[in-house]
């Protein structure tokens, strides 16, 4: 299978992580599609990317945060749906509303 450099991948993925993930980012062109994970890699920005094989057999990457494999947000876990707003978001909203006052 071709890699990003156009060369064919002949060796197995050494860091393969079994499992499937679904793309959950609403604006991603592959939204709601499920893929088999072929491992992960990191960028210089400390962002984890998952590797997967696309329909054409090429290896692609996607930020882990764009998938259902992302870590659960601690606020979402603790609030358990009881609070849709974070305190810092409400404070920022208040500041924006104050700026809009005549």
Number of domains: 2
How helical, in percent, are the residues? 10-25%
Rounded mean pLDDT score: 82
The fraction of residues in strands falls at 15-25%
Based on DSSP secondary structure assignment, what is the total number of beta strands?
A: 4
In DSSP terms (H or I, runs of 4 or more residues), the helix count works out at 2
Report the sheet with the most strands, covering strand number, pairing sense and barrel closure: 4 strands, antiparallel
The structure class reads alpha+beta
Q: Helix and strand succession?
A: EEEEHH
**Overall form:** elongated
CATH topology of the largest domain: SH3 type barrels
Oligomer: single chain
Radius of gyration: 19 Å
Uncertain stretches: 1-17
CATH class of the largest domain: Mainly Beta
The span between the termini is 61 Å
Strands side by side in the biggest sheet = 1-2-3-4
Architecture of the largest domain in CATH? Roll
